[in-house]
Amino acid sequence: MDSVIESLPKLWDGFTTTLFLAVVSGVLSLVVGTVLAAFRVSPLRSLRIIGATIVEIGRNTPLTLVFVFFVFILPTTGYILPLGRVPAVIALTVYTSAFVCEAVRSGINSVGVGQAEAARAIGLGTVQTLSLVVIPQALRTVVPPLINVLIALTKNTSVAAGFAVVELTATGRSLARDFPTDVLWMLGGVAFFYLVITIPAGTIAGAIERRVVFSR
Amino acid sequence: MNDASTTDEPIVDHEPTPRDQLGGPLVVLDGVNKYFGELHVLQDIDLTVHRGEVLVVIGPSGSGKSTLCRAINRLETISSGQISIDGVPLPEEGKALARLRSDVGMVFQSFNLFAHKTVLENVTLGPLKVRGMKSAAAKQEAMDLLDRVGVANQAQKMPAQLSGGQQQRVAIARALAMNPKVMLFDEPTSALDPEMINEVLDVMVGLAKEGMTMVVVTHEMGFARKAAHRVVFMDAGRIVEEAEPEVFFTAPTSDRAKDFLSKILTH
Q: What total of structural domains would you count in chain A?
């Protein structure tokens, strides 16, 4: 127990790194995923194909492979990324965007086609129809699955531990080496810090859900 | 059927713009064909709607009347032929089409009010985002329109809190807020409870009397008699018969129209 308290500064550093990865990749994934979803429901066939291709690659590739690509493969082609957080954020974003896209797309599809028709009938363009009418209504159904995606993302940041990023899991591993008799306590501390991110995420989600809800 | 209840009413206020005072062509359909796969839903449709004219489109379900109505603002694409509005052929996609649609009001069978916006916001959305109107002016105009259709006191409610008849009147106000050149009504009373039909029809009759150009897909013969200049009868994707309402309802010439009218009138 004392060893955990002694290690708190290190755990805190790991925690902030994990939080950084989760928040930055989360925000980027929400933006990229929403754009991809717009591609996938676009009236233009070429955009739909581009969107579908990116999504299928992103969500059908194991996250570790995505990391391997950005950390080891891409540099061999000449695009050298700084080691550490940058490739981790990119890999997490590529992977998570695909899931965000599918959650948003299912939300868009849950909005009746009549809503989009009415929007187009008063002269709104495709982008306005989506941003003013369809997406605000899609949010209602999209928030719960999106939170699942973001919680999964938070846990997925631990893959970065294998790629030279000292986040929570990597910190836990090294602390377990330093205090072999207190491994359980150390891992408990690591788990606690993950919960510090994921539990508020769930609570915030509930609050957002209550705000965007309205009766049809 | 609900239709019969309004049919026998005495014809009052029958004073739409006299036929000979109608303006030039506003909506022109020229050789329009549409296929849904193998199904030929619109067959060689030639139709001209003049400025100020109220045209009622009637016909059995599946006759293509809704498709015709929706093709006029390109909610349905057509396979061949041409549709033009105020001399401008319908653009394919993009900004030009959106601009043209903003001049064509549409009222749907299922209202389609924006479910996440208040009644007032439903009406102001187009003027604000399409016309770029100032918020205060848009609100003022919207309130005037809501007042005109008799739902001004519901302005702050959400659509789901309103009755069907009220929702449809809001939908009419929403379309009017764009100052459309022509209004399309796609079975505007078919989803309504019988006691709410008249409140919507009254608003439509009022519009007709003010000289609005209207294309109305409906079975409401009371409305056709009160307000329409012309009735078009469609069957199996074709225009089978066109006549003034009184002539059409009392002395239809085609067998299909006679058969159809006998079915809806005997109820």
A: 1
